[in-house]
Design goal:
binds adenosine monophosphate, HIT family, subunit A, Tumour Suppressor Smad4
Length: 307
């Protein structure tokens, strides 16, 4: 799984020395120098070599100098290499030169297509966008579960029936899918159809949001009446009726043929989500969402069709 890399750097625990920034896969040698402001002669000029992997969130530390260093209190001798993780303590020579490896989340970006949801999960497990990951662990919410997926009800249903088929694999969105995920996708879609079949008098669509707001790949199985108080605004409406809602079979066919599903840009997403209101079943163009919702129930999905 690819993700936006985090920022890694060493911070002096006593704030005695400046931070040492670490770039992804760029080897740096640190020691006694104007950069670190370490003047202690027990620390060599080239004391340690550091190689950060900002995707794996670890730093490879190699001892170069004659005097040792300590990693988490354990000695590191010349030519020895060890990996350190965020919050680990690295000491060069003596106590005064103690650093902690700090990890910072990538800066929030206004373009949702550039935000990797699992990154937020690692840094903010209680973040709202992680709610589905938490929900699929809650036995009281599960309508179905097997090795690869969980089916739950959408907590803010946008229609009379609205299910979510949520993958257990750590995949967040369509852009992370490839040929290896075809079987999972087929199973999720088949399960979505099983749930749709429970309501033969309702019409459904199965699909994915082009840019989801919640982490963990989830298929919407949503009835087309949009008769729900939770559907409150233009963005909600367009997310289920414009091309922002990508039909499940379209995604499957694209991944099977091309091996990937192309990601739309933040700009395209904005445009789709701000499309003027229009009935998804006829040419009616209402002024306001409540008018449209009334129209849909009266003209297309009368209440008597309700379960
Ligand atoms: P998406 O825009 O595709 O990420 O849609 C996420 C869906 O998750 C929305 O339809 C939300 O109503 C729904 N949702 C948000 N929080 C929860 C939750 N805790 N449990 C179940 N569904 C949720």
């Amino acid at each position: 799984m690819t993700s936006i890399p985090v920022k890694l750097f060493l911070r002096s625990t006593k704030k005695a020395h400046p931070d040492i920034p670490l770039s992804h896969m760029k080897s740096v040698e640190i020691g006694r120098s104007p950069q670190t402001k370490i003047k202690d002669t027990k620390v060599s000029k080239k004391h340690l070599r550091l190689l950060a992997n900002c995707f794996a969130r670890s730093v490879q530390v190699t001892q170069l100098g004659a005097n040792p260093s300590w990693v988490q209190g354990s000695i590191l001798k010349t030519d020895e290499t060890r990996n350190i993780a965020p919050n680990d303590i690295l000491e060069l020579g003596q106590d005064d030169h103690r650093y902690e490896l700090i990890m910072e989340a990538p800066k929030a970006t206004k373009d949702p297509s550039q935000t990797h949801l699992e990154d937020r999960a690692l840094v903010h497990p209680g973040h709202w966008s992680m709610a589905l990951i938490r929900a699929i662990k809650d036995d009281t919410l599960k309508l179905f579960e097997d090795d690869s997926m969980v089916v739950i009800r959408d907590a803010y249903p946008k229609a009379r029936q609205h299910y979510l088929v949520v993958a257990k694999d750590s995949i967040d969105s369509l852009k992370e899918m490839d040929l290896e995920n075809v079987a999972l996708l087929e199973q999720m879609i088949a399960k979505g159809h099983d749930f749709k079949a429970k309501h033969p008098d309702l019409e459904f669509r199965l699909g994915f949001h082009a840019i989801p707001s919640m982490a963990r790949l989830h298929l919407h199985v949503v009835s087309q009446d949009f008769d729900s108080p939770c559907l409150k605004n233009l963005k909600h409406w367009n997310s289920f009726t414009s091309e922002f809602f990508v039909p499940a079979d379209v995604v499957l066919a694209k991944i099977k043929s091309d091996g990937v599903y192309p990601q739309i840009s933040g700009e395209e997403s904005k445009k789709l989500l701000s499309t003027p209101l229009k009935c998804h079943k006829c040419s009616y163009k209402p002024k306001h969402l409540p008018d449209l919702k009334k129209h849909i129930v009266l003209k297309h999905y009368p209440k008597k069709m309700r379960e």
